[in-house]
């Protein structure tokens, strides 16, 4: 909301005139607010993520300060630059992230985003390797199996068998 102000100055003496200032505009903006919060995510060790926040309000401009803390510790450390996005880089441990949005205008109150939890989980592992070297004749069948595990937060494991005429490849999906 923009409101214009001016001042009239006069004296109590007889026949004194009135001086009028020029009009000036004062714009009052709402305090900063975050309309799109950074999102939590899960990925494997070494993965990375770009966190994003969308903010409005504030005057004359918005400032962003990203912070991270080990999950649940509330030991916030400033990271990143003055940007609505933050790239985590390659991660090997889990963190909570938040962004503080402030404005440089007088009386603007800063706002903190909701916490985005980024969990770094171990890669899937093969617990029981397939067994081979079983003699068989052309047209015979052989069943192979494997046992693998992974964190359920990463979703279902996907199995893709491959074959090759030699142990060194090239490999073809079967």
Could you describe the 3D structure shown?
Helix content is 0%, strand content 41%. With 174 residues, it is mainly beta. The chain is rod-shaped, with a radius of gyration of 31 Å.
Return the average pLDDT rounded to an integer: 94
Determine the fraction of residues in helical runs and give it as a percent range: under 10%
Q: Estimate the global geometry from the Cα principal axes.
A: rod-shaped
Please, what is the oligomeric state?
Answer: single chain
Distance between the termini: 66 Å
Number of strands: 18
Class from helix and strand fractions: mainly beta
Main β sheet profile: 6 strands, mixed
Instruction: Provide a count of the helices.
Output: 0
Rg over CA atoms, rounded to whole Å, is 31 Å
Helix-strand string: EEEEEEEEEEEEEEEEEE
Name the features:
single chain, 174 residues, mainly beta, 6-stranded mixed beta sheet, two-stranded antiparallel ribbon, 0% helix, 41% strand, rod-shaped
Topology (elements, then pairings):
Layout: E1 2-5, E2 8-10, E3 18-20, E4 24-27, E5 33-36, E6 41-44, E7 50-52, E8 54-56, E9 62-70, E10 77-79, E11 85-87, E12 95-103, E13 111-112, E14 116-121, E15 125-128, E16 147-149, E17 162-163, E18 172-173
Brief digest:
The protein has strands spanning 2-5, 8-10, 18-20, 24-27, 33-36, 41-44, 50-52, 54-56, 62-70, 77-79, 85-87, 95-103, 111-112, 116-121, 125-128, 147-149, 162-163, 172-173. The protein is mainly β and 174 residues long.
């Amino acid at each position: 909301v923009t409101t214009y102000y001016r001042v009239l100055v006069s004296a109590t003496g007889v026949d004194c005139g009135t001086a009028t200032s020029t009009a000036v505009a004062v714009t009052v903006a709402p305090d900063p607010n975050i309309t799109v919060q950074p999102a939590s995510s899960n990925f494997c060790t070494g993965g990375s993520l770009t966190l994003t926040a969308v903010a409005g309000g504030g005057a004359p401009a918005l400032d962003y300060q990203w912070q991270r803390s080990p999950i649940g510790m509330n030991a916030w450390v400033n990271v990143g630059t003055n940007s609505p996005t933050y790239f985590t880089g390659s991660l090997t441990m889990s963190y909570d992230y938040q962004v503080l949005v402030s404005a440089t205008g007088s009386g603007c109150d800063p706002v903190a985003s909701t916490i985005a939890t980024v969990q770094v989980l171990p890669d899937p592992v093969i617990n029981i390797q397939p067994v081979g070297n079983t003699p068989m004749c052309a047209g015979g069948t052989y069943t192979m199996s494997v046992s693998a595990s992974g964190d359920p937060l990463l979703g279902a494991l996907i199995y893709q068998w491959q074959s090759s005429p030699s142990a060194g490849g090239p490999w073809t999906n079967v």
